[in-house]
Every structure is written in structure tokens, then in C-alpha cells.
């Protein structure tokens, strides 16, 4: 039991810290809190977390198979980056994350699926934690790992949501500035992710 708590707290910390830098998903939570309300933000965050947890759990179950498919998801990452840059262009006009009832949930799922960093990030940490014997090969370890990932990301989303709530008045007045900041964040994140994905593919050749 003590080993499981150590694994849980370790992965929870990694997930929280990894979700703090501004990106497609956490800025989406802030945008929805300000412009769509808390329920829309919760839907969006739930969709994004559901996909991340499912991908991590699947990666843990089929680690060796995924290692043989690196080229596939790297080029998939390039495609995802293109979509992120396209969303950045749309965000200058606002409304990227919200378009009606139920759509924030779908947006969270789609943007999380298109995130090219989920698998490389967590596969790297799986290797590290296994080498330090923090993570075992059993199903219980994998479930604890995936659960901690979801809770850590949820905590980071909550922090972004609270920031949007506290500054909601200022952000609503300066809505154009908020859309511009989100667009800039998406452009930088998409550009960096595309560069990383392309360089990774070049090294493999």
C-alpha cells in the first residue's frame, strides 16, 4: 500500500506540473470559464482528461507495441500541430472552445486527441519510473498511474479555472486581449510541437 501511495503522489506531481505551462487545453479552460461559464469549462476539462487517461492506460498496457509505432504517432503529431495552428488563427476571432450546448465536451475530447505530446511525455516518464522501481508491471500499478494522471491534470485545470474566475471582470472587458493571448499561446505551442515532431522524424531516418 505504501508503494502505491508513493507512485500515486509521484505521478500526481508530474501530471500537475506538466499541465501548468500554458497550452491548448488549460487556456481553453480559462477561456470557457470567462465566456462560457463553469459548467462549459468542466465539460471541456472532463473530455480532455478522459482522453489523456485512456491514452495513458492503453500505453501502459501495450508499451512494447507503441514503441514499434513511434513513426506513426510522430507524424500524427505533425498533423495535430497543424490543427492547433489552425485553431490559433480562428481564436483571433474568438469562440474556438465554445459553440453551443454540449460542444465544449466534444472540443475537449478532440483537442486532447490531437495533442501530440501525451504519449511521448508519459512514455518517457514510464521508462524513468520503471528504472527507479517506482512503477511495476501489474494492473494495479497501471490503474494507480492512470488515476494520478487524471487527478493531476484536473488540479491544474482547476487552477486555470480559478484564475479565470478571479479575473473574470478584467478578462471580459479585455476579451480581445484574451483571444489574442490564447491565439499566441496556441501558435507558439503548435510551432514548438511541430518542430519537435519533425526533428524526431529526421533523427529516426
Give me a quick take on this structure.
With 205 residues, the chain is mostly helical. Helix content is 82%, strand content 0%.
List the helices and strands and how they pair.
Blueprint: H1 2-18, H2 24-35, H3 38-61, H4 63-67, H5 70-91, H6 103-113, H7 118-131, H8 139-166, H9 168-173, H10 175-204
Question: Any overview of this molecule?
Answer:
The protein is mainly α. The protein has one domain (2-204). Helices cover 82% and strands 0% of the residues. It has helices at 2-18, 24-35, 38-61, 63-67, 70-91, 103-113, 118-131, 139-166, 168-173, 175-204. The longest helix is centred in the last third of the chain and has 30 residues, at 175-204. It is globular.
Characteristics of this structure?
205 residues; mainly alpha; 10 helices
Largest sheet: none
Strand tally is 0
SSE sequence, one letter per element? HHHHHHHHHH
Low-confidence stretches: none
Quaternary assembly: single chain
Number of distinct helices: 10
Tally the structural domains: 1
Shape: globular
Strand content: under 5%
Amino acid at each position: 500500500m505504501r508503494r502505491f501511495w508513493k507512485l500515486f503522489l509521484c505521478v500526481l506531481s508530474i501530471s500537475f506540473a506538466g499541465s501548468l505551462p500554458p497550452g491548448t487545453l488549460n487556456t481553453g479552460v480559462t477561456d470557457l470559464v470567462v465566456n462560457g461559464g463553469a459548467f462549459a469549462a468542466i465539460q471541456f476539462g472532463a473530455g480532455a482528461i478522459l482522453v489523456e487517461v485512456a491514452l495513458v492506460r492503453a500505453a501502459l498496457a501495450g508499451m512494447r507495441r507503441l514503441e514499434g509505432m513511434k513513426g506513426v504517432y510522430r507524424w500524427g503529431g505533425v498533423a495535430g500541430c497543424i490543427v492547433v495552428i489552425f485553431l490559433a488563427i480562428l481564436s483571433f476571432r474568438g469562440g474556438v472552445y465554445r459553440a453551443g450546448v454540449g460542444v465544449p465536451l466534444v472540443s475537449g475530447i478532440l483537442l486532447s486527441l490531437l495533442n501530440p505530446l501525451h504519449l511521448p511525455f508519459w512514455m518517457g516518464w514510464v521508462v524513468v519510473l520503471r528504472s527507479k522501481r517506482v512503477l511495476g508491471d501489474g494492473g494495479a500499478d497501471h490503474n494507480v498511474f492512470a488515476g494520478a494522471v487524471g487527478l493531476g491534470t484536473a488540479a491544474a485545470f482547476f487552477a486555470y479555472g480559478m484564475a479565470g474566475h478571479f479575473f473574470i471582470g478584467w478578462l471580459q472587458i479585455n476579451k480581445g486581449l484574451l483571444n489574442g493571448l490564447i491565439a499566441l499561446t496556441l501558435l507558439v505551442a503548435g510551432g514548438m510541437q511541430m518542430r519537435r515532431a519533425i526533428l524526431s522524424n529526421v533523427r529516426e531516418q
